[in-house]
Amino acid sequence: MENNPEAVVAVNIVAWNSMNYLPALFNSLDDQDMPLRVTVVDNASTDGCGQWLGGEYPFVGVLRNMRNYGFARAHNQAILLALSWWKEADLSKRYILVCNPDVELAPDCLRHMYDYLESHPEIQACNPKLWRAHLKYNDSDQKETVKTKVIDAMGLFLSRSLRPYDRGAEEEDHGQYDEKTDIFGCTGACALYRASAVLAASEDQQFFDEDFFAYQEDVDVAWRMRHLGMRAALVPRAVAWHHRGAPSSGKSGWLSAWIRRRNKPAFINFLSTRNHVWVLVKNLTGREFWHCLLWLMPYELAKLAAALFSWAALKGYWTALAGLPKMLKKRKKWLSVMHTTYKNQSPWFT
Predict the structure, then answer these.
(1) Residues 252/115, Cβ–Cβ less than 8 Å
(2) Residue 318: is it exposed, middle or buried by C-beta count within 10 angstroms (0-12/13-18/19+)?
(3) What is the pLDDT of residue 143?
(4) Of 107, 125, 103, the residue nearest 116 (C-alpha)
(5) pLDDT for 226 beyond 90
């Protein structure tokens, strides 16, 4: 792999103490059969990943932040850099891969995603099949990746209660989703976006809302792109593996979702609680609200009751309330330029 200035795909990676995973990710990027231009935004790591990149991949662009600015802001930095390379290019033919450092790509993964978007101009973003992976240590105390066919995500969806979930999470993959390529939006762990769509869905040079810091910023983007009439798809021939840190949310019941939330670290629970409120405030239209009311209200009331036993969740709700004026201002902007109709949106809330 080398950073090719003529590459039509920019690979953007945000690292924060990611040395357990970066070497495997870069090995998988080395195996891709197309030219790439790679940028890593290092959010003030202390585990030596910046030094490792400088030694092993000196041609890779590295932006080093003085502190951890979170997933959203760091990816926006990399996106702005990618867009600056293509000022004179047709952005509908340029692509940005948003990639977690704990992902590994099959050798033909990016080629399949790129070919799909090239042959489907009506689609603005796509996900590969994401399968689960985990690390184990062999007898020589060396790390090995165990790759499975257990589904991590087959696209991002919303339940009728408007709870975001990764389709198929924790199921064994038997091809059950191979024909169901339409998705609500892209899971942010590994998603390829058309650069023109990124630009159109950005405000004040922010594609991902930086107020979110991390978690559910991909849900916000997916819903916003839907409001703008943009579509997303699963590309079943493209495969990647994800070493997921926090447990993903499949389409499980409320009790399972509550248990997952209780088991999350406090900071993640705080972000998830706060950002979920903000996602709804920014994106939920009046007709969508009434369409989902019978499922939405019991779920949200149950979450609020559970939050009484979690300081992190209570802090999340309090901070969400404090940020409502800013979120309502953003809501007004995006809903005023909606290109889609309730008829087109309603099938996703069933």
Answers:
(1) no
(2) middle
(3) 77
(4) 125
(5) yes
Q: Which domains does the chain have, with CATH numbers?
A: 9-242 (3.90.550.10), 254-348 (no CATH)
Q: Is the pLDDT of residue 215 over 60?
A: yes
Q: Which of 277, 275, 271, 281 is nearest to 329 (CA)?
A: 281
List pLDDT tens digits, range 89-98: 999 999 999 9
Per residue, the 3-state secondary structure of the chain, as one string, reads: CCECCCCCEEEEEEECCCCCCHHHHHHHHHCCCCCEEEEEEECCCCCCHHHHHHHHCCCCEEEECCCCCHHHHHHHHHHHHHHHHCCCCCHHHCEEEEECCCEEECCCHHHHHHHHHHHCCCCCEEEEEEEEEEEEECCCCCEEEEEEEEEEECCEEECCCCCEEECCCCCECCCCCCCCCEECECCCCEEEEEHHHHHHCCECCECCCHHHCCCCHHHHHHHHHHHCCCCEEEEEEEEEEECCCCCCCCCCCHHHHHHHHHHCCHHHHHHHHHHHHHHHHHHCCHHHHHHHHHHHHHHHHHHHHHHCCCHHHHHHHHHHHHCHHHHHHHHHHHHCCCCCCHHHHHHHCC
Contact 177/153 with Cβ under 8 angstroms?
Answer: no
Separation between Cα atoms, residue 251 and residue 299, nearest integer Å: 14
> For 127-161, how does the pLDDT look when each residue is reduced to its tens digit (9 = 90+)?
999 999 998 877 666 778 899 999 999 999 999 99
Contact 297, 254 (CB under 8 A): no
